Amino acid sequence: MASTNLMADRKREMMLAAAQRWSARGETRQAALAALAQFGPGSADSPMKRAHYQARQDLLAQAADLRAAGQLPRVLERKIGATLDFLSQAPSEAARTAGRPVARIVTSVDPQIEAEGFATGFLIHPGLLLTNWHVFPDAASASGCGLNFLHEEGERGLQVGITFATDADGFFVSNEELDFAVIGVAPTAVTGESLADLGVITPSEATSKILTGQAIDIIQYPDGGAKQYATRNNRLVDILDEGFLHYETDTLEGSSGSPAFSAAWEIVALHHAGIPEVVNGQIMTVDGKPWSEDMGDDQVKWIANEGIRISAIVKALAKVELKDPSQSARLRELLQSTTDPADEISRILTGTAPAEPGEAGAPQRLAVAGATFNFTGPVTINVGAAGLPAGLVPDTQAALEKSLRFDPDYASRKGYQPDFLGSGIAVPVPAVAPERDAEMYKVDGKIQVLPYHHYSLAMNARRRLQMWSAVNVDFDPTLRGGSRTGFGTDRWIGDPRIPAQVQMEEPMIYGPARQIDRGHIVRREDSAWGATPQDYEYSNSDTFHWTNCTPQHAAFNRASPPSTRYGKRTGLWGAFESYVQASLQKDGTKACILAGPILAEDDPVAEYGHFSVQYPIRFWKIVAVPVKAEGDRLVLQTFGFVMSQKDVVDKFGIEFAPGQYERYRTPLAEIASAAGLVFDPVLIEAEHKPAA
Q1: Is 428 helix (H, G, I), strand (E, B) or coil?
Q2: Mode of pairing for the β-strands spanning 465-474 and 590-598
Q3: Whether this model's pTM surpasses 0.70
């Protein structure tokens, strides 16, 4: 059981650390407050942040309209939660909805004992509760404690509420630096009620949920008593890149671990500490005297409050590695639920992500949340606030209710087969050049090659992206079945066989850089084949691992990028992939395709909060096919290509020859040098040579 005395000591350490951060931001905060006083909420934030915020609010308002029309998928409706109630109903109803998953943490779970409340926490996923590290620094400190929900004033007076036991053995993760802990909760209350009936407050990786000067509301159990809603004197005054928010919302003792919401009841922070006035390292009292512990916290002169940004907590959780398979699986499920619902709404409404704000009249430069892409060649990109269509949702709700299903048995994946083409033809995978070897992810000193259904790849650990991949492709129609929508809603997952820190996941670039696609290297259609429906379903899903994903601009990645934004252009990478597919469907159906990003030292870098992402500009692909030689003997022929995100070209031809892609033909030796790889001599010898 948690020791309240030790907890008080830990909390005071957090208070002093918060006070130091507050003091360090003095000049920045004063400038922001001056702007707020003159121009109002949001005026202290950058134009880009305000535009991101407004675009996101517009999407959430569209979601409320979709729900009213009965056209919002139920899964997404549950994920947005109380925000929808705020937008479409009375704020008090939204507050009630948001408050159901908030618990008073108590000293005992025994119904025969009158337990004492000492902190707050809230459900963020079925069976998982978020609170502070200083409340539960380790699993042992949670032993014997209870989680008392719905302890609040009602029509019949103060309600006792429902108490559930903690389950730290089932799940526990804590982080001292960001002062958070995630702990398991028993599924059934001591009096028999179901935890599932309380709902959850789903955390989101989104960083544009609130602007400086706007209200922050906190649901809490102050002094261990009944639930209270702090909705006055509650202005956000500072947003720290280190992962904290400073605000003026009133809180009391026992509020540690409370959820902090935007005015739209979106979770934005985990409250963890009041900020006391500190003079010469000494906490001061309300009457200007040095404070001591025997005076009690009510004598401290509080000047603000501090919370941990939910987006920072999501990012930290993505780096956690758990040895227990069950806990690791629960963590992955939690992280998969943290994608920004605004992105999902945008995809429903438009089939693409929302446009980033930018300057009109600059079609050759594209700014994406602090990064700039420069394009050459015949490309027109119109950047601006994209309007949403007047219509609502096409009849795809059934597919949206279903999500991709992954093969849970990673040991059964055979991966890429070099002899796949038959007739004695072998297409070996690349080796890594000695000068790049140190960058690779290894196990016991050897580069780990990850096998999936029909393909394999190796990861560059330093760049968090694959170095190369190799896939066996067969477009025999008898081996194909299902459709992308039939398989269910796309979702990307981490590969549990390797650490999260060597995989580039959603919060690092794909979420904040809205015009960047999650670009498959092994194409979904290339891998989605097999002898049974389960074979091609699992093969389709396997391409949605983050290990197979690279940042690609939409105008490069998609065969048909949105014409409203990019004009009548064809995405080079996507079009070429479709061209290869059409060629293989016409003649021989089999091919081996080697591909990857060129991870160059001079690749540009984008900064997104805590993430610094170096993203690739060029991509390589080698198509290996069997061709007929004399006497109908099959021999290997290879075609190598390098394509850049800086070029967008016209539509491709209809025959499998370089055709309009001849300009991208690149000798395999040059590809190897640029990509830091070594190709087997059999591939070099089989390289197709253009006619002289």
Answers
A1: coil
A2: antiparallel
A3: no
